[in-house]
Write a structure and sequence with these properties.
single chain, about 350 residues, alpha/beta, TIM Barrel, eight-stranded parallel β-sheet, two-stranded antiparallel ribbon, 14 helices, about 15% strand, disordered N terminus
């Protein structure tokens, strides 16, 4: 046991040295004159092979885009480069090679944040995601990370459940949001006031029906003290579910512990198809102004960061100033627990 612990300590120390060498120090925070400051509530520090352009690059792009704070995840799975593939796959759907759960993603993120000066560190709100959701031991990983990095983590996620082609590529049984193995995680999250970001497709490309809605609704209903953020309003690539506005309205009216984020494809595919805002969704945001978040869903690369986060300006301009401010920046902090020694 002592040898295992020593090996882990050495590995973490080695990782710290790597980040110290590769990650350049970010420039001082530069305030850009935008009508709405934004807090990015959904971004991944690494990609599907656990690589990243670096924390310094991310912070500089945030400054240019007028983003003050960010919810930052690792990535709970990593892509396998098989011996029969000549080219290394980077994204999960680059080829049919599988992905597998990768717990060290949380250490990569934690060590990158640790190397920052306090002013920059305080802008980042990291989440724990490196556990297998069909493993009842998953909650133990969360507890270990919190013990190894006290006063760092403020939530859990992004947890992958149903996720288009990624589901069939993942080693082992495909998880669902209502799995019994997730019960300890939901309960621990409620106990520690840790919100959970969840990716769970509401349907699939073969049908326009919300055939998987019951899985998420069961998890939300059975854990009323757990704050659950349903990523992308349950939508996914090439899925257009009938009655999604009505479903969203019903869920928000029924479950006060439920929130949605507008990251990834949801904005272009549902909220503003072909660049034109759907007034139905604008009305929903006005009806539930405290229940939605915006985010980039970038994964490890940040060259298009400003364009991705600033696409929401067309939405902010269509909302009342009070609602726009809530979606842009305030709602994220209403969800997150207060960290010791820090004022939000």
């Amino acid at each position: 046991m002592k040898k295992s612990i020593s090996a882990l300590v050495l590995l973490i120390a080695f990782t710290s040295q790597i980040f110290a060498q590769k990650t350049h120090s970010p420039s001082p925070i530069t305030k850009v004159d935008y009508t709405y400051r934004i807090n990015d509530a959904h971004c991944h520090y690494v990609d599907f092979v656990q690589e990243t352009e670096g924390i310094g690059v991310l912070l500089e792009q945030m400054d240019k885009a007028g983003v003050d704070n960010i919810v930052l995840f690792g990535l709970p799975v990593t892509k396998l480069w098989t011996d029969y593939d000549q080219e290394r796959p980077i994204y999960y759907d680059d080829n049919d090679a599988p992905v597998y759960y990768y717990s060290f993603t949380d250490v990569i993120l934690a060590e990158a944040i640790k190397a920052l000066p306090k002013q920059q560190k305080d802008r980042i709100y990291p989440m724990i995601c490196g556990f297998n959701p069909v493993d009842k031991n998953g909650v133990d990983h969360i507890k270990r990370m919190m013990k190894m990095y006290p006063d760092l983590w403020v939530g859990i996620g992004e947890v992958f459940f149903r996720h288009d082609d990624l589901s069939r590529m993942t080693y082992g049984r495909n998880p669902t949001a209502n799995d019994v193995s997730m019960e300890p995680v939901y309960e621990f999250a409620a106990e520690k006031n840790l919100p959970i970001w969840i990716h769970s497709d509401i349907g699939d490309p073969m049908s326009n029906k919300p055939k998987f809605l019951y899985e998420m609704e069961e998890a939300i209903r059975n854990h009323p003290k757990t704050k659950i953020i349903w990523c992308h309003i349950g939508d996914t690539r090439n899925v257009v579910v009938e009655g999604l506005p009505e479903i969203t309205t019903r869920l928000l009216s029924t479950y006060p512990n439920l929130y949605f984020d507008l990251s990834w494809v949801i904005f272009e595919q549902v909220v503003a198809p072909e660049g034109k805002l759907d007034s139905v969704w604008v009305n929903i945001f006005e009806q539930f102004p405290t229940r939605f978040l915006v985010g980039t869903d970038n994964i490890g690369g940040f060259s298009d960061y400003g364009k991705t986060i600033r696409k929401y300006e067309v939405l902010f301009d269509a909302l009342t100033p009070e609602t726009a401010k809530k979606l842009a920046s305030e709602n994220m902090f209403e969800l997150l627990p207060k960290r010791s020694g820090k004022n939000n």
